[in-house]
Specification:
Elements lengths: L3 E4 L12 H12 L8 E5 H7 L3 E3 L7 H10 L3 H10 E8 L2 E6 L3 E4 L13 E3 L5 H16 L4 E10 L2 E12 L5 E2 L15 E2 L1 H10 L10 E5 L29
Parallel strand pairs: 2-8
Antiparallel strand pairs: 1-12, 2-12, 3-7, 4-5, 5-6, 8-9, 10-11
């Protein structure tokens, strides 16, 4: 079966308090893509954050002494550095003007995922959603009411990767599908049993959608069709994007 990536144009500028699900449903209907059971709607984090009010005006931020000192040494905006510190639960690396931190439920990323691009207005930055899995589930439920189809939903953001140049889309929030494809216990083409293979399926879908979600394109949502998604696990610990964060006891680099 072919895998098809369908950009959803026409989504307006989202502002705090907007009904994002209604706006998405309207854009999907206008795109005439014929929504189908098993489709995955990929939504960029930025519009989710805007709708949820996760935006901050830099003019309202009072930097700490540490933020001012770090910013002065590396020619950064101290207000932005202060926000990074506030959003971080752990500083992973702080060197050469780079801040790699742990934020949210355990994402490790640059600058706590705070973004200045495509903001609602100059001087306003966007923070990551507080609970992207809840955001994805809320959109899924609301879109079912608008469209009459049970879509899976993936909320994504662009992260860098250790040991690799270039950024790619990652799944932050996942609803309506298994986030990973656990192949352990199955067999390869030669009949060998797989013992460690667990595919980051939601991340793969996020990356595929990212091909149509370039910064300047104005495409904040994409339907991915033709992926054989697996039903959401019954075990709460294995559901959602949060379950894809490697546990501390299995992380060799903490």
């Amino acid at each position: 079966m072919a895998i098809v990536i369908l950009p959803i144009p026409g989504l307006p500028q989202i502002r705090p308090g907007d009904d994002l699900a209604a706006q998405l449903a309207s854009a999907i209907s206008a795109a005439k893509v014929g929504v189908k059971q098993g489709d995955v709607l990929v939504v960029c984090q930025k519009v989710v954050s805007k709708a949820e009010g996760r935006v901050v005006a830099l003019a309202d931020v009072e930097p700490s002494a540490l933020a001012r000192s770090w910013a002065a040494r590396h020619d950064k905006d101290p207000r932005l550095i202060e926000l990074v510190f506030r959003e971080s639960t752990r500083i992973v690396r702080m060197d050469h003007g780079n801040l790699i931190v742990e934020t949210g439920p355990g994402w490790v990323c640059a600058n706590a995922g705070i973004d200045q691009s495509n903001a609602i207005e100059e001087g306003v930055v966007t923070l990551l959603p507080l609970d992207p899995d809840a955001s994805a589930q809320g959109l899924r439920t609301a879109l079912r009411g608008h469209l009459g189809v049970d879509l899976a939903v993936v909320v994504t953001d662009t992260f860098g990767r250790p040991w690799r140049e270039g950024q790619v889309e990652f799944a932050l929030g996942v609803a309506g599908m298994a986030p990973v494809d656990d192949l352990r216990g199955t067999h390869d083409m030669n009949g060998h049993e797989l013992g460690v293979t667990v595919i980051g399926f939601a991340d793969e879908i996020a990356c595929a959608a990212g091909l149509a979600m370039r910064k300047a394109a104005g495409i904040a949502a994409v339907l991915v069709r033709g992926c054989e998604i697996t039903a959401e696990p019954a075990d709460a610990e294995r559901r959602g994007g949060r379950s894809m964060i490697r546990p501390r006891e299995h992380d060799l680099f903490r």
